[in-house]
What we know:
The protein is an all-alpha fold. It is built from 1 helix and no strands. The protein starts with a helix and ends with a helix.
Amino acid sequence: MYCAALFFYTDQMFLFLVIV
């Protein structure tokens, strides 16, 4: 569960960096 949440958070950050 924790790993999944961490992966989701990292994915969000990656998308944010791509947009910016």
